[in-house]
Amino acid sequence: MGRRWSRLTPDKLRLKKVADSDVAYEVFKTVLTPGDDKENLYALLLNSKNCPVCEPRRISRGTVDSAPAFARDVFKEALKWGTVAVMVAGQTASLPNGLPPSPRLRRYASSTTSASERGSTYQ
After folding, report:
1. What is the structure's pLDDT at 80?
2. Is residue 48 part of a domain?
3. What pTM was computed for the model?
4. pLDDT higher for 112 or 5?
5. What is the extent of the structural domain holding 66?
6. Whole-angstrom distance, CA of residue 109 vs CA of residue 14
7. Total structural domains in the chain?
8. 3-state DSSP call for residue 89?
């Protein structure tokens, strides 16, 4: 029921100019479902004035840790709706609170932090 209230009406959606990431998030959050146990990939299809032509379309629904998608799936939706621009957003699966990050994630976080402190993106 909460999700239904957060949706924009089609008229308001088509009038909303998506000029920055904050506005894009407003549009994307109408379809994002908190507590979803699978990862999703959504595409926001825009016309030449950067206004959405429809609600964000789900391109891929994956598993708990991946949402496989191909560029052809995104372009297929864009061509079907006749859009000139596409914004893509992913929704990760919800994890229980208090779950510690995996060792691989900790290594990645420490390596990117140390690389950015050195002023280099490569190690």
Report:
1. 93
2. yes
3. 0.65
4. 112
5. 2-118
6. 39
7. 1
8. strand
Amino acid (one-letter) located at 1: M
Give the DSSP H/E element, type plus range, for residue 108.
Answer: helix 103-118
Residue 67, domain CATH: 3.40.140.10
The residue with tokens 């908190």 is 34
- Alpha-carbon distance of 115 to 122, in angstroms, equals 7
Residue 123 covered by a domain: no
In this prediction, residue 46 carries a pLDDT of 92
Dihedral of CA 12/75/42/98: which sign? negative
> Which pLDDT does position 86 carry in this prediction?
93
The per-residue pLDDT for range 10-43, each reduced to its tens digit, is: 667 777 888 888 888 888 888 877 777 788 889 9
Name the average pLDDT for the chain: 75
Contact yes or no for 39/92 (Cβ under 8 A):
yes
Residue 32 lies in a domain: yes
In a domain, 72, yes or no: yes
Output phi, psi for 82, to 5 deg. 65, 45
Beta partners for 85? 46
Residues 6+ apart with CB under 8 A from 39: 61, 62, 63, 64, 65, 66, 67, 90, 91, 92, 93
